[in-house]
Amino acid sequence: MRHARVYGVAGLAVLLVGAVAFAQSTVAPLPDNPPVETEPLDANAVAALAKAAPGDPQKGAQLAGACAACHGLDGNADIDPTIYPRIAGQSERYVARQLALFKSGERLSPLMQPFALPLSAQDMRDLGAHYAQQEAGAGIADDGLVESGPYEGMKFYEVGQKLFRSGDAERGLPACMACHGPAGSGNPGPAYPHVGGQQAWYSSARLYTYREGVSDEQDKHLFNVMASVAKSLTDEEIEALASYMQGLHARPDPAMLAAIEAQAAAQPAPAVPLEETPVPTPDADEADPGTDPAPDATPDAD
To answer: Residue 7 burial (CB < 10 Å; 0-12/13-18/19+)?
Structure first.
């Protein structure tokens, strides 16, 4: 009877140990986390811009705080120009339209979409008005030489300058400045972007996208304009154009030059140092003024 109790206790211990081992080797499934709620895509985001009032730059400045982390306080992306494009000096309509494209999903960007989704059409117009008032900066164009091909011996920015200002009539390429202006600031009218001073990596990336000719935009009119231009550009020409536009900036107009000259004229003239009066050097036969003349050896006769 005693042996039966011992065996019974031992069997119970084995069962307990086995149960503990099974519990330790079995991973209990975690409860599913609820999905993160995000703003839904708005397929009518671009069309809603037409109903919004003209942008208020002061309201846009209040909204621009969220943009400053990447694009800088004035939209010149000085924080990291190798990742973020310049948006300073862009037209109100262009900025608003791009934000609407991000919100509708017609322009894909995992980085920009979360910022665009909560914005109303009026917010987009206000942000555009704010950045339109900011002065765009500029970078430096690549002055390296093209080593092969039809542009051999030319500098990269010279190739870009030729295409930007003259195009290529033989291939039916119009001059870029016909739409973007001589200084790349964008002509009034359609929402042509400000390309002068833009980061070269961003301009080239956009030109490659246009050359591929694939877009999810519902209204492809403006996209197709650029696609027809970029379709015949070579990689070398795209990089040269992007480099030239990076260094492109507006020259001061006559009014600005006059203001600069007036400001310079109003500055007090720098003090002219007094000329030092030269100290005369005595002749060798002159007595040292610091010593008394020697007395005559023979006194005067009475």
So the answer is: exposed
Whether domain 138-251 has CATH 1.20.120.790: the reply is: no
Give CATH superfamily name and number for 40-135.
Cytochrome c-like domain (1.10.760.10)
Residue 3 CA to residue 294 CA, distance in Å, equals 147
Alpha carbon of residue 74 to chain centroid: 10
- How far is the C-alpha of 162 from the C-alpha of 154, rounded, in Å? 11
Q: Which residues of the chain have pLDDT under 50?
A: 1-27, 30, 34-36, 287, 297-299, 301-302
For residues 111 and 128, is the Cβ–Cβ distance under 8 A?
no
User: Do the domains spanning 40-135 and 138-251 agree at the CATH topology level?
Assistant: yes
In the chain, domain spans: 40-135, 138-251
Task: List pLDDT tens digits, range 233-250.
Answer: 999 999 999 999 999 987
pTM for this model (two decimals): 0.71
